[in-house]
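Quick one, T. Sequence first:
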Amino acid sequence: MKEDKIIGEDFSLPEETEIVKKAKKRVGFKIHIIIYILACILIWLCWVFIFHGSNLNKPAFNAILFITLAWGICIIFHYLIVYKWDKTYLEKEVKRLKKQQEKQQQQIEDYSNQDKI
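Structure tokens:
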């Protein structure tokens, strides 16, 4: 029963919240790619049955090819954002600054400990 409530459940630990966010992004990408594949199949079938033998063959082909390629490029960027660049630049910068601040704090503590000796 607990597995059924995972999506609507509020998570108290930050790690769990991050996992849920990452899972939602990945599911969103998978839905996006399924819609892309189905839509491309549909528009190419329409081209075959409607425009293939007509005088409008060339402009229709070019338009459908452009849509397929442009949307494909969007899919590639969506993949990169979800699976490769999953952290925002802001989050990375915040972590870097926190690490730098901790390092400075450690140096101050080390220096004050040397004075006591």
